[in-house]
């Protein structure tokens, strides 16, 4: 399928393979970036004739995730965990200490800047959240 609805959607399994991520990392990344599965107009065509119901994502969303710097950090975490696990297994505490002191850090500042480009946007969103929490607290106490 090179055009049409079959080329517009990709299954979750194919997306995981393309991004080279685990399911948990993929879920985290999708939540952070605000990408959700989509419902195609014609599921059979979108699934390339396959039966059953599969989770489908838009190809452009996955392309968008491919250029995300967080993916490299998630891969660094995977490598870090392998090194730490190996050092623990062979009881090499010197290397273990070195690895734990130089662990990779996940920076989310670019996602915050992307979601809230100005300070005013962030303040307005924060205000909405506080209002929602206040309503929720009143509802929990039986005041509403």
From TrEMBL:
One of its GO terms (molecular function) is RNA binding. Its main location: nucleus. Pfam families: Pescadillo_N. GO terms for biological process: maturation of LSU-rRNA from tricistronic rRNA transcript (SSU-rRNA, 5.8S rRNA, LSU-rRNA). This is Pescadillo-like. One of its GO terms (cellular component) is PeBoW complex. It comes from Asbolus verrucosus (Desert ironclad beetle). It is found in: Nucleus.
């Amino acid at each position: 399928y090179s055009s049409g609805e079959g080329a517009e959607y990709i299954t979750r399994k194919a997306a995981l393979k393309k991004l080279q991520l685990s399911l948990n990392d993929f879920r985290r990344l999708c939540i952070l970036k605000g990408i959700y599965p989509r419902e195609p107009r014609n599921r059979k065509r979108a699934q390339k004739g396959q039966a059953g119901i599969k989770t489908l994502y838009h190809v452009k969303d996955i392309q968008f995730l491919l250029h995300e710097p967080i993916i490299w950090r998630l891969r660094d975490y995977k490598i870090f965990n392998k090194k730490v696990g190996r050092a623990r297994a062979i009881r090499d505490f010197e290397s273990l200490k070195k690895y734990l002191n130089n662990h990779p850090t996940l920076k989310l500042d670019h996602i915050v800047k992307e979601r809230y480009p100005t300070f005013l946007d962030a303040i307005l969103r924060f205000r909405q959240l506080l209002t929602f929490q206040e309503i929720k607290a009143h509802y929990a106490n039986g005041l509403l």
